[in-house]
Amino acid sequence: MNGPGGARIPQFGAEETARLVTPAAAVEALAAALRDGPDPEGCPRRTAVPVPGGELLLMPAASGAYAGVKIAGVAPGNAARGLPRITGSYLLLDGPTLRPLALFDGAALTALRTPAVSALAVRHLVPAGRPLRLVLFGSGPQAYGHLDALLAVRELAGAVVVARDPAGARELAAYARSLGAPARAGGPGDVADADLVVCCTTSRAPLFDGSLVGPGATVVAVGSHEPTARETDTGLVRRSAVYVESRAAALREAGDLLIPEAEGAIGPGHIVGTLADLVAGRLPPGGRAPVCPQLFKSVGMAWEDLAVAAALFQAAGANSAT
Fold first, then answer.
1. I want to staple 293 with a disulfide (CB 3.0 to 4.6 A). Which of 162, 178, 182, 240 is the partner?
2. Between the CA of residue 229 and those of 155, 226, 249, 256, what are the distances in Å?
3. Residue 202, SS3?
4. In this structure, are residues 79 and 45 in contact, taking their beta carbons and an 8 Å threshold?
5. Residue 272: partners with Cβ closer than 8 Å, 6 or more residues away
6. Which 3 state secondary structure label does DSSP give 295?
7. Residue 64 in 3-state DSSP?
8. Distances (CA, A) of 106 to 35, 196, 233
9. Does the pLDDT value for residue 50 go beyond 70?
């Protein structure tokens, strides 16, 4: 891709994107953005356009030295073709001049930033100390990314992988063992013994019986940004302390919350706080209600893409200078 004057701007593919910034560094980039950047409540809305193959998403953001936009495609039929479900690109711009700086693989960026958002929430919601018993729903790229990111912020006593594809569950469990975490494939009932439940699937209906989740457990749900889709059930949401990236975004897009609200089970005030509240210390570490489960519902936001893309660009510059 050419920038102003015909000069080519650097392009970073999936492998290079994954190599430039570690999950731990992505977590720190997000934390810094929340401390120093604009309020996520004012982040531009995601634009979603239905197309024959699925959905096109447009996600712009700007903050200080950088601006950027992600153009992503969500193609549910790609799995049957052996192709990634999420495709796209991220164009990073210079903030003051809007001059193109770099082009990143959009799917690789999403695979890095979404787990980092979850890990940042876990770092603040789950007290450090004893190793955690994890139940992880899903066996795709997001599940792998979440395992890497969670291990960057917490030690795992063990992991149980629950997935529609038994072979995929076994492969991810083997990957977890290669990282030093005891792991096996399991089923939805394993949430009863979990300290941490992470849902990163394409499911449109609850994955497990929320009544099985213990009062001290934390649940992270990232699989959907659609008002009619959810991974957790109404019972769990009703008895949980709920945290989100942005109240405005959650109340537009989070089916995990909007469906219980439509049922009359909760109201808009059910949200305890935001990720920015946690990072700023405006809420007690570990949440306000330790006697109930804690639920972090993520829909994915453009400011997150910008923060991680900027970190990637800076890392690429540092690497080229050495």
1. 240
2. 31, 5, 15, 7
3. coil
4. no
5. 241, 242, 243, 283, 287, 288, 289
6. strand
7. coil
8. 25, 28, 30
9. yes
